[in-house]
Amino acid sequence: MTPNIRFIIDSSHDGAFNMAADQYLLRQSVSENQIIIRFYTWSVPTITIGYMQKPALVLDTYKMVQESVGWVRRPTGGRAVMHYEDLTYSCMFPKSLKFMGSTVRESYNLITKCLLRGLGYAGISCEAHDSYDQLLEVKREVKLPCFLAPNRDEVMVNGKKLIGSAQRRVTDSILQHGSMPLTDYYRKLPHFLKLSQKEQISQSDLLKKKSICIRELDKTLDIDTLVESLKKGFADIFNLDCTDQKFTNDELQTIEKESKSEGFIKRWLE
Q1: Residue 146 designated active-site
Q2: Is the pTM of this model over 0.85?
């Protein structure tokens, strides 16, 4: 059966719901043999940490409580990322869809092409660029924030990183998600990490110099136009039948229940 694309234009949710939703959709992509692409935002400022990180060693939870910032562990690796006033995308698909790439690099490259095409429709000229060599030099001198982690095929604008993405490949399916800052709120991240004052300043300076947000590129671009443009980019590159299908009430209840379950809390919130 030929797969199709299900687009989910979601609303704002807290961190637990957002991660539970992506895990649910990862399973659904296999059972439905389809590519699922979800666009979503965050109802409260939330830091996601990498799957292997320990919050007590990474996060300044005292500051976070004071300033009402939440956190959640994400299924992908890497270090902490600040989410708020950003647009997050997630793309889930079964491994059986060989045209989606058989390696991390192949799948990453394909999704980057979709993002570039979509941003072009939104009037943002960007390019795929290997930030690896450039940022690896910086990494030798200072611990990089996750948003600037060296990688291949990054979405860049004039040498500055616009989207930070990560991928997880499990037994039968693949999840790639990424954050596109709408404002410069994401640059507050170092303030909430267990870093020396010198390291906080260094990371803040790097985020200003090496990354960029939508507002700095186009103050008039609204999120609805951006999402529609990105959808068009994915549809063009994949060239498959597409449907817009929001979460059903049953799906919302399933995700809510999972996000509050003991197993989920133990794995993603402790």
Answers
A1: yes
A2: yes
Number of domains in the chain: 1
Q: pLDDT digits over 18-35, tens only?
A: 999 999 999 999 999 999
Torsion of CA 13, 166, 71, 226, to 10 degrees: -30
Return the beta strands (E) in 170-209 as ranges. Answer: 173-181
> Residue 116's CB: how many other CB atoms inside 10 A?
20
End-to-end CA, the chain: 41
Question: From CA 247, how far away is CA 255, in angstroms rounded?
Answer: 10
Question: Which of 54, 104, 50 is CA-nearest to residue 77?
Answer: 50
The amino acid sitting at 121 is Y
- Give the DSSP letter of residue 143: P
Convert the pLDDT of each residue in 37-46 to its tens digit: 999 999 999 9
Catalytic residue among 114, 146, 213, 242: 146
In CATH, what number is assigned to the domain containing residue 173?
Answer: 3.30.930.10
Which residue range(s) make up the domain with 257?
Answer: 5-124+165-186+224-268
